[in-house]
Specification:
The protein is mainly beta. It has a single domain, classed as Protocatechuate 3,4-Dioxygenase, subunit A (Sandwich), CATH 2.60.130. 5% of the residues lie in helices and 26% in strands. The strands form four sheets. The chain has a three-stranded antiparallel beta sheet, with no helix packed on it. The longest helix has 8 residues. It is globular, with a radius of gyration of 15 Å. The relative contact order is 0.25.
Length: 165
C-alpha cells in the first residue's frame, strides 16, 4: 500500500490518501520515498469523521489495532484477505525520526467495495475503521481484511493524521 504524503507547515508529514500500486518493497527504496515530500494529496472517500455525514471518531471503541470487526452496538465482520498494515509517521523537522503520539485514523472499503457507515447494506456497521496512537518509533500496526484484486476494482485505503503540538 502506498499513501500520498503532504508536508505540513509544522514539518510533520500529513498522511491523507489512498492506496496506489507498485510501492517499493525494499527497505532502502521505502526509506528514500518516505523521507521525500510529495506535494499533492487526495482526500479519501467516506471518511466517517463528521465532514460529510457520520462521525465514528466520537464513538467509544474506535481506538483499536484490529479493524476487521465492528465495535459498539454494531456486530459486522469484514470478509477478505487478512492484511497487516504498518505505517510510520516521521518528524521531518527533526531528522525524520518517528513521531510519537500522533493519532492515525485508517479506513477502507470491504471486499464488495462498500464503506461502512455509508454504503447500502452496511450503514449500521463501522468495521474497517480505526484509530491508533503512534508509539515511540512513530509506527502503528493495523490488522484488516483486504479486497482481492482479481475480482474487479482494487481495494482502496485512506488515512488521516493528527499530531499534538
Amino acid at each position: 500500500m502506498r499513501l500520498k504524503l503532504r508536508n505540513s507547515p509544522d514539518g510533520f508529514y500529513v498522511i491523507k490518501g489512498r492506496s496506489l500500486p507498485n510501492w517499493p518493497t525494499t527497505t532502502a527504496a521505502a526509506s528514500t520515498r518516505a523521507s521525500a515530500a510529495i506535494p499533492e494529496e487526495t482526500a479519501g472517500p467516506f471518511p466517517g469523521d463528521g465532514s460529510n455525514g457520520p462521525n465514528v471518531l466520537a464513538e467509544s471503541g474506535i481506538v483499536r489495532s484490529d479493524i476487521t470487526r465492528s465495535f459498539g452496538s454494531a456486530s459486522g465482520v469484514a470478509k477478505g484477505v487478512p492484511l497487516t498494515i504498518r505505517l510510520k509517521v516521521l518528524d521531518t523537522a527533526n531528522g525524520s525520526v518517528g513521531r510519537e503520539g500522533a493519532a492515525v485514523y485508517l479506513w477502507h472499503c470491504d471486499i464488495d467495495g462498500r464503506y461502512s457507515l455509508y454504503s447500502e447494506g452496511v450503514t449500521q456497521e463501522n468495521y474497517l475503521r480505526g484509530v491508533q496512537e503512534t508509539g515511540g518509533d512513530g509506527s502503528v500496526t493495523v490488522s484488516a481484511a483486504w479486497k482481492p484484486r482479481p475480482s474487479g476494482r482494487g481495494g482502496n485505503a485512506a488515512s488521516s493524521l493528527r499530531c499534538r503540538s
